[in-house]
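Researcher: Quick one. two chains, 1217 residues in total.
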Amino acid sequence: MELNGHQTEDGTSGETENDEAIGPKQTHQQQQQRPWKETPSSVSFLATSNMEGASAGGSASISRKTSSSSTVRQRTESLKKNRPPFPWFGMDIGGALVKLVYFEPTDVTAEEEQEEVENLRSIRHYLTSHTAYGTAGIRDVYLELPGLSLCGRTGSLHFIRFPTHDMAGFLQMVRDKHFSSLHTTLCATGGGAFKFEQDFLMMADLELHKLDELECLIRGVLYIDSVLPSECYYFENPTELERCEEKAFPLENPYPLLLVNIGSGVSILAVYSKDDYRRVTGTSLGGGTFLGMCCLLTGCSTFEEALEMASRGESTHVDKLVRDIYGGDYERFGLPGWAVASSFGNMMCKDKRESVSKEDLARATLVTITNNIGSITRMCALNENIERVVFVGNFLRVNTLSMKLLAYAMDYWSKGQLKALFLRHEGYFGAVGALLELLKPS
Amino acid sequence: MAGHVGGTEGGRNSMDKSITLPPDEIFRNLENAKRFAIDIGGSLTKLAYYSTVQHKVAKVKSFDHSVKEAEGDPVYEISVQEEITARLHFIKFENAYIETCLDFIKDHLVNTETKVIKATGGGAHKFKDLIEKKLKLKVDKEDEMTCLIKGCNFVLRNIPHEAFVYAKHADPEFRFQNTHPDIFPYLLINIGSGVSIVKVESEDKFERVGGSSIGGGTFWGLGALLTKTKRFDELLQLASRGQHSNVDMLVKDIYGGAYESLGLTGDLIASSFGKSATTDKQFSKEDMAKSLLHMISNDIGQLACLYARLHNLSTVYFGGFFIRGHPVTMHTITYSINFFTKGEVQALFLRHEGYLGTIGAFLKGAEEDNPNQYSWGENYAGSSGLMSVSPDINPMQRARSGTFDMLEMDRLERQLVNLPLLQDPSSYIPDTVDLTEDSHAREYWLSCFEEALDGVVKRALASQPDILEAAERAEKFRQKYRHKLQTLRQQPFAYGSLTVRSLLDTREHCLNEFNFPDPYSKIKQRENDMALKYYQKVVRALEDLSWEQRQFALVRGLLAGNVFDWGAKAVSDVLETDPGFGFEQAKQQLQERPWLVDAYNQWIERLKGEPHKCALFFVDNSGIDIILGVFPFVRELLIRGTQVVLASNSLPALNDVTNNELHILTERIAGMDPVIQAAVKDDRLTLVQSGSSSPCLDLSRLDKVLATVVRERRTDLVIIEGMGRAIHTNYYAALSCESLKLAVIKNSWLADRLGGKIFSVVFKFEVPPKTQGLH
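Model:
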């Protein structure tokens, strides 16, 4: 991706040249010697969360900041020894989107600040002072987790994404920012960690520490849920449009759960404990299908555009409903008249093809893909005998329509047996999991 | 959703209305038709009706023996009588012809008492007024799904080789399944515009357990939007030429290769249409259609597997217009099922899938006649068979051709059931060689039947010397059967697995179709007369022998008798030219021991032990075979204290002895032989009909009475005689009691195949594993 902020905002080209002299090892040593110091401003956010959740998060190296008591200080002091040098990144390279999480330490002391190498500072400044990078890189500011205590440091966790096809631009930026002077490896997961391994090495002199995407996903989910009580939520009264509303759902005893990750494609995992999980199945009808089809059917080019169109469309112009065939409910089999009998079924008819709008088509595509994921999920839940389903993945980003549809479908077709749960950091759990791997004590 | 697409792509109704229907071939027997049913889908109409067919049947009647008969008089007389049998007709045609067809029916429907027509399918309401106006019948709508299930149960129960698995790259592409005696439970996945998943547990118990809105309508609707191609067939055609990897995001597009830790190969689709999320690229219609086809087929396959697992079912049938004989969709669905179940579940398809709705609607209407209490048989003469699905055939041509597909089912007079003595009814396969798979054998037998055709025509004519128009009918028979053989050469899978049995049965059906019910009646009569004269002499000669000698002579007599087979060309040629060819000459033709398959020693050892309680004997030919071969052998069994049940064909086939004839012959022999007389009187010798009219034998479709007798008498020995019954069929049949399979190979090609020469002897004595060691 072309990172537009580079020259204009930072204006630090001279500084970066100087930094090249400082080797990574030296940096590492300097950081470790720095005294840890708390930033009072960050305390409030997480002051109420409990410690048990942290262990459920699955990584011993993570602690939550509670107060500046000496016990915490001692613990974090000891953790420090295993702490990797800054910057802390976790990356998840998917089929369509690259998800990047970045931990910005906010407890940097003046001394630390002084000693901070320029390359590191440049990266920090660049990432934290922008919300958009290049043509399509975005920092999801609303997801930012400030005041997070990680590995004895306090800071903010930033969530950044950019399209996978901008990988070359990203690598160029990594190279320009001399990332390899700070780290020789980068923790990465997702298929792209394998696909782009050579590119990282050749173009950015970085070795990828490749991590399994399912493991990262689960670890990320459990961690974020443990540090953010409002992370998980559900829709109350999903079958009643007016009364349907979001409610927090504490995932205290989450197992067993079905974890449905809707990215370009869909993976469905049965999770029995943090280490005991299995990919039950998957489907190729996912977010990529929604966007791909919308592009072909409506000429739109972005997910946001497609969603926006869908929000204004009417899928019943496109789909054939039970009532279109039977005039009402198909009572013999308990099928309500409003149920979709055939997705895009009306489009078999020439007249109807000519009268639908692009918005209708976008809406129908969204409904079709979403309902299909819902029904496959429901069958898996039945086969696995699991009643709790957590939906994640970037398909759900700013996509309340799909979430409500899923919540409705789970509830309606299971007669209230199944509960659909959602997480606020939808698509970033794999990247979080990768970051946690970086911070794992060796 | 239940099945059919209503009101799609109109505009074709106006064309082709001027076609003239050939009444000889389509809508046959309309004069007697009653009970109509119609299933109108999105593009095809399926019509069903019941008719009675007047048939000539050959009857044999014993003369009144109180009058002293003159030397040379035949033992019985043959008469050809009219008999009425019931038949179901199913015709499938394009909706474009519906008006023409209704007019035709109106014109040809003479005094019917029928007042209503049962209707199903999405298009039924659209044509309701037209039907009511034209036919003056009240349209009575039936639930689609109920009809579908009823129809499905009916074809599964009555048509062997109804179900098949499809393998695109195999030769043949179709592998027909043996009908399991218990067809329940099963899952039916009906892919119409949407998908319905139905669990069927019994005749009356079924449940729609689930479904999906992504079905044939989605393929069609989305396909039309994406490719601007309107017709379903054209879309499939496009898809078969496309490359989905240009549109889909594959695992390797994300991973650079396989996702090894999960065992997902690089070529798997990670995201359908994942590559089309861009505006700066054009995608070909073919590629998009292919991607769409994969997406939908995979999705349906996946759901099918999830439902099969949830309900613990492994029998899964697929139907609906999305499937309907399209090799492209059968392949993608099969692929999907194999992928998701790792081969645990097979995707099954049905030969008559398109007829299920109309069959079911018909059955609903005929409930008072209780059609399910009868067994029905596919009439090969009147049925079109499975259409060629060679991908070379342009589906557009296929769809637009005015072909009328037909299925005719004969009501069998007897209810057919399994032989209770089959070791494993579910794995029993009657036929020894599947000619669909064995192309060399197929080639040979097709030619063999073609060469024998002249002889059969000649026989047929000779059986009706006094009937003037017989020559014309015989010629029609010749053409019909030759055409069938040609069809089978092109499409060996047309009626399920091609076998020697099906070729023989097709010939019998064609002969009946043209009113040649028993071409060999006169020959059988002559040979029976002649053989009866020798009976006493043969029995006396046997009595003079020692026990050991006699046993061998009896077996040899049985084998020599079996040489007299008009079904075998090598023999019929001899019999045609040398009328004097007799029992002794036949014995000389037999192979000397050791025979090709020789279990004689084991048989003799067995005879030295306990006598069998009851022997069931499936007999073969008339004349010398039954009278001089079988009866002396049976006589010995009776003397040993074994009861005997003689099973013969219900209706004529070649020169096989029929149940009617056997009754007369037994009576005559009883008159000459006190042993037989006493056995008949004490009911130790019983005659039953097999329920069959074939020269071969399907032990899974036998007369219910036979099954009862077999069970009641605790039958512990089954004897199967003749090439048709013991070699072409049942050679590998495993029975739960002892069995004797014997035949003389009267065909040099077959002898060669089995590693012997013509007139080689097969004498197979088998003891089931569980009783082994007791003797």
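The longest helix of chain B spans residues 285-310.
Researcher: Thanks, that's what I needed.
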